[in-house]
Write a structure and sequence with these properties.
Length: 95
């Protein structure tokens, strides 16, 4: 599904050139899943995911466009727990 970006939205250029609006909830969801798969409690997984999402959202603010790889790099940069980072990378490798 292609989503159009207005001049006031941050756009993400996907792997095959498709463009969609940046959605911080996707960052949250992937970090939350990685934390749960690293045996964090739901509460702790929420904290990890929220912290990473806030940092990535701040980084994305003011940008007009970025790639999925740019976002992934920022997520990895902002995950402090090595097990969560490993699970995040692992999920990317199998998807």
């Amino acid at each position: 599904m292609k989503k159009n970006c207005t001049p006031y939205q941050v756009c993400v250029v996907k792997r095959h050139g498709r463009v969609e609006r940046y959605d911080g909830k996707k960052v949250y969801a992937s970090c939350y899943a990685a934390a749960l798969n690293s045996h964090h409690t739901e509460e702790n997984a929420e904290k990890v995911a929220l912290e990473v999402m806030k940092k990535v959202n701040q980084w994305a603010k003011g940008k007009k466009a970025m790639s999925s790889d740019d976002i992934r790099a920022q997520v990895l940069k902002n995950i402090s727990d090595k097990d969560v980072k490993l699970m995040y990378r692992h999920h990317r490798d199998i998807s």
